[in-house]
Amino acid sequence: MVIRWLIKPKMYQDSVKLMKLSSELSKQEGIKHASVIMATELNKSTLENIGMLVPEVAAANADDLAIIVASDTEKQAQKALELAEKLLNRAEVQQGETKQQSPKTLRSAVEALPGANLALISVPGIYAATEALKALNLGLNVHIFSDNVSLEDEVWLKQIGTKKGLLVMGPDCGTAIIDGVPLAFANVVSRGKIGIVGASGTGIQEATVLIERMGGGISHAIGTGGRDLLDEVGGQMMLLGIDLLENDPSTEVILLISKPAGPQTTKKILDRVKQCKKPVIVNLLKGDMNIIRSAGFVGAVTIEDAAYKAVALANGEEAVSIPETYWGDYSEQMAVLERQLCPNQRYIRGLFTGGTLADEAMVILSDIIGDIFSNIPLKPELKLPSARKSHKHTIVDLGDDEFTRGRPHPMIDPFPRNERLMQEYADPEVGVILCDVVTGYGSHADPAGELARAVARARDAYPSNNPAVIAFVCGTEADPQPLSEQVKVLEEEGIFVLPSNAEAARTAGRIIKLHENRRV
Amino acid sequence: MTLSRNLINGPVKVVNVGLDSFANNLTSLGVANIHVEWRPPANGDPHLVRLLALIEQNIDVINTANQKAINRLLEAQPKLVDVKLAGDVIPGFERNMILHSGPPITWSKMCGPMRGAVIGALIYEGLADNAEQAEKLAASGEIKFAPCHEYSAVGPMSGIISASMPVFVVENEAAGNRAYSNFNEGLGKVLRFGANSPEIIERLRWIRDVLAPALRDAILACGGIDLKTLTAKALQMGDECHNRNLAATSLLIRTLMPALVKTYPPNKLEEVVSFLAKNDHFYLNISMAACKATLDAAHGIQGSTLVTAMARNGVEFGIRVSGLGNEWFTSPAPYVKGLYFPGYDDEDANPDLGDSAITETCGLGGFAMAAAPAIVQFVGGTPQDALNYTLEMYNITLTSNPAYTIPNLGFRSTPTGIDVLKVVETGINPIINTGIAHREAGVGQVGAGLVRAPMECFIAALRRLAEIILTVG
Q: ipTM of this predicted complex?
């Protein structure tokens, strides 16, 4: 073994730097030992203990730097000393990055954003309730986008929210617009006098979009989550939402968008509405309009009708039903499309990404063409045996749990509908395909383009089948996917685009009806 | 009923937990928001997730208790008031007692350095003449071993304190409680690393007979030394007051010097002053006692999840929690990741040892690493890493201490008051700057580096908290 050393007189270096150098030298090939030290008495005695103290180093002073290496060969030792000199002389500018320190917990986030007043929660369902509770405990309103939260958890979270006067929107709340801020899936609409509380995500989106198109505006749109009106939950957030909007100076008209509600809850909500100082429109899709009318409220069967009445009230006019030809007269286009159908192309197939939009289409279509099969049917006997296979007139909600388990919602991921569209195109009995296109924040960057390309592929694959494709775009010009561009893309592909979901459903139904009459 | 008027009337400010695209949308709209870098709590352990959820349902009780604990912590005014012999000043101290670092441990289980230090202490006390006798005595059951922490005391490394060792007396003037620590003997072969040869004993006697009285007179003549101010100044000068005490030691000497010159015979003054001047770590023990006095004031508040001690005995790492009385929650002591002095490597290292992590518990040391970027080189890091360590710690502390600020972070207060709940929830282990002891008695310090407090201690404490809260609540 050879021991070699180098002394650099009067060269002070920080001990940490020297320890680093020692450890780097030790890693060099053939090096048995390496010490880079200031020659203090303490360090010298350490060297002595390990048999590395050579007389020259022993004679050095505390402000001298000493490099001592031991290796098998002269060459290795010299190389190590050279390296040590190089490292010592290197202007050590160490680069590093200060990690952008995002807060790791809700609590740290609130500390970092003073004045935070709303938590938007989209973590996996099993964690969502606790995160929501943390937010409530910190005095935040909560928007729970997550699904798979138990009904039990929803009930107590909403009890806490009600007690604290904080909103608990959701679980499974797809949309909200608070003070003009779109949350989760939401369209960009004008501010205005109409406040919405709704149990349905796409129902609220459709209402806000149509109100915008009819010249109205939104003060706030509060989502409650689809289960809020079950008797177990008791409409807690619908009630709190009504309170908030009633007391909100920017709101003049309140629009309630319901889902099928428990009997006790229906009564509770209607009793509350009776006390409301502001006019209220109640949209009870699939619900019994007689309850609403007998209670003396303005009711609306379709979202389109609800939006129309809300805008009328906000303008100080009387709330009358939307006229038949409000959007225009489409009889000519319907006739053209109908004439292209072969005699056996008699069924309608609706492929929806929005559950409430599918519901509304079924309600409208049932009146025109009778029974509609579905995975979310109006009557139990109309339930499809398999959601993946259509039967006669069929409307499917592709956003239903069965389709979304383990994959993104079809509003984000168009693949499942593209695939289903091909399947329907292949069926020679299909006369009309009806689709929704939902834009806005949260949605796919170009849902119309995706649908148009899917239609083009299906046409190429089955050129002899030529069903009419009817769509509407639930979106606005200010959305990240501007309405006019989305409509243009669809129309260029020969898709007939209507201005509302209800109008699209009516048009689709009438084409089928026309066709049926012609065949008879 | 109160209403969400803030939401409806004020500007919306969103905390986003989950999909980052939702936050990006808000940012593009110019809406104030903050995105949480969320991970499943407790690394997704279902049992712990459930416990955390249950505890969250009773969080009001905990918040109230923690607020009380935080107030006591932040209001503390540690002052160095005296130097006395341990047996004379530490309440409950017995003649045959030896205090050690970390959680409780028996003689037979002690690590090498601690055994060596116990032997040295028994010889120093005159209870044994040599190592062999001392070992026999230690094993006989006649010596009462106890953790320093249970006697308001702290000691670095083996932390051995016996009756006739001088201790610093630190008084928390806000709450009136006192804490004690032994004297720092310097580096190399010293008792705290288990050295016990005659020259070590000789030095201990010199500390008792010369250094301690000299400092005592000077401290009394000064009317005591405000340690909160001294520590705050040292942080501004590049110390974190655990692994780097260069500035604090210098400040201490500067403060004592006029009094020393006045109170001490000039012919003997030189040896006292040289001893202090040669020891960069002299302030460490005082820093520790100040932290101990601060945290003890915050201990014993029912329902509080504040960690009031982290300590290691070289075999186990243990923590104590304000709301959980005198119980220790322990797990095997980890090894320190760091750099070694010349001639040593991993093989030589003892597992983590000493009470010095009381500094981190009090928001100094690793928690204040941003103040002392030089330290981070121990693990081959950059000054930016130092900032990151400190920034990370804000996620697991209950508050920050306005008395201690970090120039590099725009004079932001140091993250202070470790919260058991936050540690378990985030899965972020507290960071500790520390020295590495040789595993054999008497060799001394062989390196320094960083170590993370083991998660198991915090999980065990969380389970106990849940038991208490959920049976009471």
A: 0.82
